[in-house]
Design a protein that fits this description.
This protein is mainly alpha-helical. It has helices at about 1-20, 30-35, 40-55, 70-100, 105-115, 125-140, 145-150, 175-190, 195-210; strands spanning about 55-60, 65. The longest helix is centred in the middle third of the chain and has 28 residues, at about 70-100. The protein is elongated. This is Transcriptional regulator.
């Protein structure tokens, strides 16, 4: 039961981040958050620790918590991770699709893009839009059919695991992100591995500049 409550608390924190109820620079009382979430302290603190481990939240002793202040070094690491790991995946998928036009991963990516297109209006919930964004990147990793690469979707390193990057003052428009995804998918469908890799780099550049 406590494990389930911890997960519920974690999900509530993620939703609060996505809904901009937690914003950069603000310090929040753990007791106040616990009351707002209508939960006991233990699952809330467990969820906070998980977010700390993921470098999503910072604990300020005797003061409270705040959204993690991403350092220049961490941004560089996110950038290198996304370029290296996802770049390899999109280049490989382009080569694979060139040989097999029925590739199931490409079919899924096309479907996700259709769904993302319907979410471009900022009035749609960010949660729904970002879930599709995340699935797009997860599918790139899963396209290799390699258990190790599949496990990397849970890494805190990729840009795709940090929705708050799209919710900064230098907010990216959903259309900008969508266009990057479409460019990646177009190159894959053309069997252009170099073009797919370059499109992925452009996407990572865009995310880097958002901070």
């Amino acid at each position: 039961m406590s494990f389930l409550l911890k997960d519920q608390a974690y999900d509530k924190f993620i939703k609060m981040i996505n809904d901009k109820e937690l914003i950069y620079g603000e310090i929040y009382s753990i007791n106040a958050l616990t009351a707002t979430m209508d939960m006991s302290k233990t699952p809330v603190r467990d969820a906070i620790q998980k977010l700390v481990d993921e470098k999503r939240i910072d604990i300020l002793p005797s003061r409270g918590i705040r959204l993690h202040q991403i350092t220049k070094e961490e941004l560089t690491q996110h950038y290198h991770f996304s370029c290296a790991i996802e770049g390899y995946c999109v280049a490989t998928l382009a080569k694979t699709y060139e040989k097999d036009k029925k590739n199931p991963s490409v079919k899924k990516l096309k479907k996700l893009m259709e769904q993302m297109k319907k979410m471009l209006d900022e009035q749609h919930d960010f949660d729904e839009y970002f879930a599709l964004d995340q699935k797009f990147h997860q599918e790139l990793l899963e396209s290799l059919g390699d258990p190790y690469f599949n496990s990397l979707q849970h890494s805190p390193m990729g840009f795709y695991n940090h929705p708050e990057i799209q919710l900064t003052d230098n907010k990216l428009s959903r259309k900008e992100v969508y266009d990057c995804h479409q460019k990646i998918l177009n190159a894959i469908c053309e069997g252009d591995s170099a073009g797919a890799y370059e499109a992925l780099l452009e996407h990572s550049d865009l995310m880097l500049k958002a901070f």
